[in-house]
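Extended Data, panel c. Modelled sequence:
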Amino acid sequence: MKVNAQSVNFIADAKLIDFIQKRMDKLEVFYDKVIGSDVYLKVENTSAKENKIVEIKLLVPRDKLIVKKQCKSFEEAVDSACNSLERKLVKKKEKLRAKA
């Protein structure tokens, strides 16, 4: 799957980008018609520990799934967002099966 990762106001290291790519590739197990995705990484300027924001836009035929998560680390936020996307993709697949 084509993953377009963008980090806002900082430079993401290669390990983080690689982690995001591997985690996003696992989504194709749940729904094989995924076209691509945009991943936005942001750091919020607050004193709170949970200041890492990950927003994922997943492109599927005739639809766009968007998930936004805020956690202590980018890896945790990506993992949480992907878990939400997995549930959404399973629901979408079940709806398609019900129509057919």
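The helical segments are 14-25, 74-99. This feature is highlighted in the accompanying rendering.
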